[in-house]
């Protein structure tokens, strides 16, 4: 979560030299999006540490498997959310 705050702060500090008004508008939109994402991340419930550790152990052991159907479904859902 600190990383999100640092990224947001860095975006605010970045200089405007050489930017056009179009760049400023895109930059502002990007900063707004990053700010919203940071707010969501910071307000999300804490990660269940035991679950993370179990998944990490599976990944490290090479036994973690995800179905192709699950991956495809997640990709489609992300595309739907962005539209």
What does this protein structure show overall?
- The chain has 83 residues and is mainly α.
- It has 2 domains: 1-44; 49-83.
- The chain is built from 4 helices and no strands.
- The longest helix has 23 residues, at 21-43.
- The radius of gyration is 18 Å and the shape is extended.
- The protein starts with a helix and ends with a helix.
- The model has no long low-confidence stretch (mean pLDDT 77).
N- to C-terminal separation? Answer: 26 Å
C-alpha-based Rg, rounded: 18 Å
Looking at the structure, what is the overall shape? extended
Unreliable residue runs: none
Q: What percentage of residues falls in helices of 4 or more residues?
A: over 70%
Residue fraction in strands? under 5%
Q: What is the structural class?
A: mainly alpha
| Biggest sheet character | none
Count up the helices: 4
Chain-averaged pLDDT: 77
- How many β-strand runs? 0
Order of helices and strands: HHHH
In the residues, how many domains can be counted? 2
């Amino acid at each position: 979560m600190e990383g999100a705050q640092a990224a947001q702060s860095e975006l605010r500090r970045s200089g405007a030299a050489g930017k056009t008004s179009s760049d400023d508008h895109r930059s502002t939109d990007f900063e707004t999006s990053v700010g919203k994402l940071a707010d969501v991340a910071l307000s999300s419930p804490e990660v269940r540490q035991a679950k993370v550790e179990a998944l990490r152990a599976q990944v490290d052991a090479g036994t973690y498997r995800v179905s192709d159907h699950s991956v495809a479904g997640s990709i489609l859902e992300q595309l739907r959310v962005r539209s």
